[in-house]
Specification:
By secondary structure, the chain is an all-alpha fold. It has helices spanning about 10-30, 35-45, 45-55, 55-80, 85-105, 105-110, 120, 125-150, 160-185, 185-190, 200-215.
Length: about 220
């Protein structure tokens, strides 16, 4: 008796399972060292089975990165409504970014530290998927810009280039905190803890809001 075909829900679940595993592998060893065969072994599948869902590892990479942004937006939409002010919304966004990086480090790394694909790799990508990803990345940046402008009155009258600089300063600082804990490079400063302590998160966010406000108020 022939095997019953998977339902769309089962296919989607299998794709997510593959991407969940691939995100961690790519974050650990890098995209260019990802072996579809080793990934298949880790999943208890055959490599040919993975190719039924993702025709090449370039498509797997871009789909996985897309899933990371989708996951973050879903959590953001669930949590951001709890904020009662623009400043609280920006604080919540920062907390969500930190918690996402700690809960799903593979997805976070692919979202914000993606590998640089070689020309032959990029030729394997689907143009429609690339456009979709570019739109999501752009949406993420626009959302951050809006949160910062709403939370810091001095930002409203700044030129767009200045607004972008302040948003970049904000993002880079959060990302730096995440990276320090992820790579365990400064153990003396981190008190041998695995996750970023809540008081460190809260203190860093408050310091960062003060610093960003000062940056925004500077005359360009």
């Amino acid at each position: 008796m022939p095997k019953k075909p998977f339902t769309p829900e089962e296919v989607a679940a299998q794709c997510q399972r593959i991407m969940d595993s691939a995100s961690q592998v790519m974050a650990d060893v890098g995209f260019h060292h990802l072996s579809m065969r080793k990934l298949a072994t880790q999943l208890g599948m055959t490599a040919s089975n993975i190719y039924n869902y993702f025709p090449n590892k370039e498509i797997l990479f871009i789909q996985t990165r897309l899933r990371g942004f989708d996951m973050f937006f879903a959590r953001m939409n669930e949590k951001m409504g709890e904020a009662v002010s623009a400043e609280q919304a920006l604080q919540q966004f920062a907390r969500l970014l930190i918690s996402f990086a700690q809960q799903d480090p593979g997805y976070y790394q692919l979202m914000f530290q993606p590998p640089r694909l070689k020309l032959k790799d990029s030729e394997q990508l689907d143009q429609e998927l690339e456009i979709q990803l570019e739109r999501l990345v752009e949406e993420w940046q626009r959302h951050l810009m809006t949160l910062i402008i709403d939370a810091i009155p001095a930002m409203v009258d700044q030129r767009e280039n200045r607004q972008k600089q302040v948003a970049l300063f904000f993002t880079a600082s959060i990302h730096g905190l995440i990276d320090v804990y992820h790579y365990r490079a400064l153990s003396t400063l981190m008190d041998s803890v695995e996750l970023i302590p809540e008081d460190v998160v809260e203190g860093h966010i408050q310091w960062l809001l003060n610093a960003v406000t000062q940056q925004a108020e500077q005359v360009v």
